[in-house]
Amino acid sequence: MTDIPVAAAETAAVTTAKPSARRIAPFVPLPLTAARAVTLIGVVATIAATFMSWTYTTDFPGDLTVTGYPGGLQVLTLVSGILTGLFALGAFGLKGLRWLAPNHSHNAVLLLALGTFATTWYTVIAIAQELGGLANLDPGGFVAAVGTLVLLIGALALPIHRHPQEDPNAEYFELGRLSTVPVAVAGYKWLRELRPHHTDLPVPDPTRLPGWVQRLIITLAAAVGLEVLTYGLATGYTEIFLGFLIVVVFAIWALSASGLLRQFSGLTAAHRSFANTMGFLAALAYPFAQNDEHYANLGVNILIFGTVALGLNIVVGLTGLLDLGYVAFLGVGAYAAALVSGSPFSIWSGVQFPFWAAALTGMAASLVFGVLIGAPTLRLRGDYLAIVTLGFGEIFRIVVNSLDGVSGPKVTNGPNGISQIPDLSIFGYNLGDSHDVGSVTLGRFANYYLLMLLITVIVVLIFTRAADSRIGRSWVAIREDETAATAMGINGFRVKLIAFALGASLAGLAGTVSAHVTYNVVPSPYQFAGAAPPNSAFLLAAVVLGGMGTVSGPILGAALLYLIPEKLGFLQRYELFAFGLALVLIMRFRPEGIIPNRRRQLEFHEDETLVPGKRPLGDDTVPVSSAGA
Amino acid sequence: MTTITKEQPTPAQAPDGGPLLQASGVIMRFGGLTAVRDVDLTVNSGEIVGLIGPNGAGKTTFFNCLTGLYVPTEGTVSYRGEILPPKPHLVTQAGVARTFQNIRLFSNMTVLENVLVGRHTRTREGLLSALIRGPRYHKAEARSRERAMEILEFIGLADKADHLSRNLPYGEQRKLEIARALASEPGLLLLDEPTAGMNPQETRATEELVFAIRDQGIAVLVIEHDMRFIFNLCDRVAVLVQGEKLVEGTSDIVQQDERVIAAYLGEPFEGAPADEGDAAVEQAEAGFGAEAEAEAGAGTRAEAGADAGIAADDAGEEQENDR
Amino acid sequence: MHTLPQQLANGLFIGSMYGLIAIGYTMVYGIVQLINFAHGEIYMTGAFGALAVWTNLPDGTSIWLALPLMLLGGAIVSVLIAIAAERFAYRPLRGAPRLAPLITAIGLSLALQQAIFLWYPGADNAKSFPQLPGGPYHVGSISIQSGDIFLVCAAVVCMIGLAAFVRTSRTGRAMQATAQDPDTAQLMGIDTNRIIVIAFAIGGFFAAVAGLASGLKYGQVKYDIGFQAGLKAFTAAVLGGIGNIYGAMLGGLVLGIAESCASAYVSNIPGMQQLGGGSWANVWAFVLLIVVLLVRPQGLLGERVADRA
Predict the structure, then answer these.
(1) Residue A547: CB partners within 8 Å, gap ≥ 6?
(2) Per the UniProt record, which residue ranges are transmembrane (chain C) (predicted)?
């Protein structure tokens, strides 16, 4: 089989180190056979432990008291353990499972072992801590703890692909003053050599498989993705959500480390439209896959938030304009839609626009404000835009709060906002009512979810088409070097204004739907930073964290930032603090975000170069299927 | 936003030999400092004009005045008889393109994308067209790509079209800047130190490139420190010292002008400019072509050596000041 | 109470505070082109630092004795945070694209604000701050609080000190050079890193002074005073000419006066009755910013920013 050229990966950089310089070395010195044996023993022990009871009381959520039947967090350990076992056997060369280790590396096994270890020990410690002491643990819990530890040790003893040896003459300027202290340099060098490294290992080209097999794989992946996401959204309590997060993070990391992710990227690249369709179908299937309205509500909010983030991505990610008051455009759209919705609290309560007209109104209103704000400011130095938009964000809330007839003319009904917004009715289908489709009941939120899904698809289409065109190139050129861009004939002001206005109108569009979903529109959520999304800081973080300039990045970022505070309730108080800290750390250590735009990653990591293989396909090669649902 | 691809009338239609660029009485003052003093310069179509002078003489500032990056305190700049508006993008639209002294590529875009951006001003598809993607859009995009690849082939970078521009070696980055400027289909190309930091082979190649550009009908105005390059290439040379144009004329006139020699070139035949650059140049010349070997007389060898030494001196000085 | 002289005086007082905070923004922006969003929180933590000193002094200590100690306490906190921010958050991002340090600054601002909220005892509500005895004093029709007197005196002293420092001291001149052309300054042997740290430190100190003054004036401090004040102060810096320290103070005064006059008088304009009043003051400040950007974007006294073209 031919190899996929390495650079088709959606992740990073290839070092130009020769293969002979690459090292394979275990972290724990054991002979290979012993290492494998220990690993497999660990797997078996872990799996067995999940069938035991880990505690004798049901005070710990999820019912871990039953022997013979894994419940709650035990299921997570079980799944992770099975995955570890499968990948281990694949890496060891077992026929039939070798496809799990296309790059012939054991790194994935180590990562999965880590994940299993982490989630299990988290569970055990959580039990002990919440119930007040180790005595609350049943033997099963100890078996699990020991078993996963054994598994981890075994995995650490496997031959792991590591970073090549450091150049003995290398100087580490990043250490600053310490770079002249021999001990510090030695320690740092040791740490650098400790790292596993698997990004440049070649993998077989999956497009050699028969076409129907490739499409089947894509479909299965979409289905699995949907299941995992649904499970995650439906987690009922904090502990299991944390365990879920741990398992998912390590599993995805392992998929990447094994080269499977790169192969999958190759597949989706070869079958672009099919993959996108599958992704869309998966997202479509979401409200049918689970019946609870609460989760449909989650879905709608994630879509709204994600769409808005995608709009901001045009402004910040593509064009490099820092907009700190973006949420105000969402608010403008929402209020505009509310005013024409026929709500009795609207000053135009006699008017009730059909949806398409309301959407256009929302977009137009936001567009107008976008132009009003942008026109004076975009001619000036870029940093001024940040302050002006920040100011606008604040002013919007104040103004809307005050237009209640007392401190200002009566337009928006002040702090009480415009409520009792009637549900939309599109072609006779009233979104407020439940409808039965086959055996499934689509509730109100499910209806809005489907509507919002359609809008998200439109926005994604707009984004990709705009980005990969003459205007998109001019945006990126402005971001890269405005002086050079204008010297190439680009009218900087005009191009920036278009980006800004487009971003604003997309936010307005999302705002229109959001007004109907939440029945009412009030001033309070439209702040720079606050406890609940949407607010401008969250939106900015979603774009930055998810990956600037990519399609799925902001949607993923929005999903994460919405879910994590929602699910980890105990963090509520510390949420904003953690959030601010996270921004600082991300910009310091992984500024390209989760889904790296191939370009941005190079921008930030100057010491690595990318050897091109296939023609680049656009800003990211992760298909829409991993977004949204 | 229309979808019409508008093409600049090809430079071959421009009046032959007539004045293309006319800068008259250009003065540029920054507060108390006068960087450019009353400079007149004309570039006729089909010409290659050189602009030389010591560092700090105001050459790049003058360029910036021509291209609208700076608005001249006094004086006018006109192109094809019309006064150029003081906005860089309008200047490019009129037909004047430039490169930069310090390379300003779009580092995170590919080579092809850089050139496509260069073509921005000759196409008209806007946002609406991009969103609708009608047949006109596709035609225009295809045409743009075709044209961009033509330029890349002309320059010699076609096989690296999908490389990220930041990964190109230095010499190729400079070529890419030129390609990008060419994409706007200019009638006049302004090159700011195109061979800075290049080895002698690359410099010769650049010379060939500029000749080829001129043969396409594009006039060239080039700032350079490499004397051999300038005197080989240019029909006329203008010398700028401390913002003032000292002399202008053919290479011979300028080379022999005493003021220029005193201020800038130094004694042409004296001394042994024993620089590293010297040996390299000789080596390059030995491998370069029939011309250099045919003229291997002692006189010309010394002259070549002296020129190279001076050029190396200048280049060294230049690099010192850059960082 | 609503006489013009009173409004002007009020505007002057609040404007001095904006000006003190604006200095920090403008100095940093002039040299490294970074909007230090965290500066507003540096002002806030300075106020809390001063409060912390006060609460730990024995009961019955005279406010006059405590004042220098409080200033010291606030200054230590502010300056340390400012320097740490520069060293650990901003400096590593010097070469990165412009967006990176800006986002870091936003994150830092949030983190600092929340840190005080979470861990300073009782900070989720307003904490009462000691006030200076005496007053209100009357000059003609104007009534002046003792806190206001402190504020104006502090602002004057600080400005004079800063002006002298920048003009006459070697470091001050080095700062001017760095602000104008950092690369050349470096070539001339100026340690630009040190200059940048000093700029942050001075900004932090001024913010601490403003924080102490704010506490004395209003009699309370709250964890969220930083955000609004920061926004206003940066507006003031832009108004006066970014990078220009005199512009920062002037901008602050102009903004303060505009705000207080707007609150008092806009409602008198026919047709705009409902647009006056406290909540609209911020709106008018914003409108003023937009107008200035439209009409004179380089600010009242002109920009002084390093040319990094």
Answers:
(1) A553, A554, A556, A557, A592, A593, A594, A595, A596, A597, A600, A620
(2) 12-35, 63-90, 102-122, 142-166, 195-213, 233-258, 279-295
Is the pLDDT score of B7 beyond 60?
no
Residue of A312, A321, A384, A387 to mutate when probing chain C, most C C-beta within 10 A = A387
In a domain, B177, yes or no: yes
Count chain A–chain C contacts defined by CB atoms under 8 A: 128
Put simply, whether B147 touches A (Cβ < 8 Å) is no
Cα–Cα distance measured from residue B222 to residue B182, given in angstroms and rounded to the nearest whole number: 14
Distance from CA of B72 to the nearest CA of A (A): 17
What's the total number of domains in chain B? 2
Residue B85 domain-assigned? yes
Same domain, B164 and B70: yes
Residues B209 and B250 placed together within one structural domain of the fold: yes
Q: Identify the domain containing residue B301 by its residue range.
A: 270-323
Q: What angle do CA A431, A436, A442 make, to 5 degrees?
A: 50
Range A271-626 classified under CATH 1.10.8 = no
Domains of chain C: 4-295 (1.10.3470)
Asked whether residue B101 falls in the same domain as residue B52, the answer is yes
Give the global pTM. Answer: 0.81
Which positions ≥6 away from B283 have C-beta within 8 Å? Answer: none
Q: What is the DSSP letter of A317?
A: I
* Contact check, Cβ <8 Å, C274/A409: yes
The answer to whether A321 contacts chain B (CB < 8 Å) is no
Mean pLDDT of chain C: 87
Q: Which residue on chain A is closest to B178 by alpha carbon?
A: A488
Check whether residue B186 and residue B246 sit in a common domain.
yes
Q: What is the pLDDT of residue A609?
A: 36
Give yes or no for residue A536 having a pLDDT over 80.
yes
- Chain region(s) in chain A for CATH 1.10.3470: 271-626
Provide CB contacts within 8 A for A424, sequence distance 6+.
Answer: A355, A358, A430, A431, A432, A451, A516
Both B257 and B278 in one domain: the answer is: no
Domain boundary among B222, B237, B266: B266
Neighbour subunits, C (≥3 Cβ pairs < 8 A): A
So what's the pLDDT on residue A428?
73
User: If you average pLDDT over every residue of chain A, what do you get?
Assistant: 81
Residues A453 and A282: their CA atoms lie apart, in Å, by 11
Sequence letter at residue C309: A
Q: pLDDT-based confidence at B319, cuts 50/70/90?
A: very low
Q: Cβ contact (<8 Å) for C238 and A384?
A: yes
Residues of chain A contacting residue C269, judged by C-beta atoms under 8 Å apart: none
Query: Nearest CA of chain C to the CA of A585: how many Å?
Result: 8
* Cβ-defined contact of C114 to A577 (cutoff 8 Å): yes
User: Chains meeting A at 3+ CB pairs closer than 8 A?
Assistant: B, C
Q: What is the pLDDT of residue A176?
A: 66
Chain A residue with Cα closest to B92 = A489
Token pair in block for residue A364: 């137009």
Which of A380, A390, A403 would you mutate first to test chain C, the one with the most C CBs within 10 A? A390
Hey, are the CB atoms on A481 and B104 less than 8 Å from each other? yes
H-state helical runs in A518-574: 536-546, 552-567
Residue B96 and residue B114 in one domain: yes
The tokens describing C120, both together, are: 């300073």
What mean pLDDT is predicted for residues A12-35? 66
B259 and B281 share a domain? Answer: no
